[in-house]
Design goal:
Length: 126
């Protein structure tokens, strides 16, 4: 994963369709980035936008959130788009909070919903 710009994409189960649609609609901008994604989200993104450079990691509850956190801490992931479902309890909520904490600590742009992701897009074009 060394070198280049890397963006992380994650979506909770109820937001995976939204993430796939987002990736398809904005594939022109996202195609300029290497993308890492948790397992199922990455699969859905690849189906929606097969030309994107997506590396699928483990599923979030199986360590994917932590893998992305590690990439943030090493400076490899430079932005995070995480479509969060605030209405569904998550058994791996502590991993999600740790991931968000790392994004804040390392001061990378982080969008947690579609509206913020749209605002983040122009910064990804640079």
């Amino acid at each position: 994963m060394a070198g280049g710009k890397c963006l992380a994409l994650i979506a909770h189960d109820q937001k995976k369709d939204d993430m796939a649609a987002f990736a398809r609609a904005h594939s022109d901008i996202l195609s300029r980035w290497k993308i890492v994604a948790t397992g199922t989200t990455g699969g859905r993104v690849l189906v929606a936008a097969p030309d994107l450079d997506v590396t699928r990691l483990k599923s979030g509850p199986l360590g994917g959130d932590q893998q992305i956190g590690a990439l943030i801490s090493t400076g490899e992931v430079r932005a995070l788009i995480f479509f969060v479902d605030p209405l569904t309890p998550m058994p791996h909520d502590v991993d999600v909070k740790a991931l968000m904490r790392l994004a804040i600590v390392y001061d990378i742009p982080m969008a947690l919903n579609h509206a913020t992701a749209i605002k983040l897009l122009p910064t990804l074009e640079a």
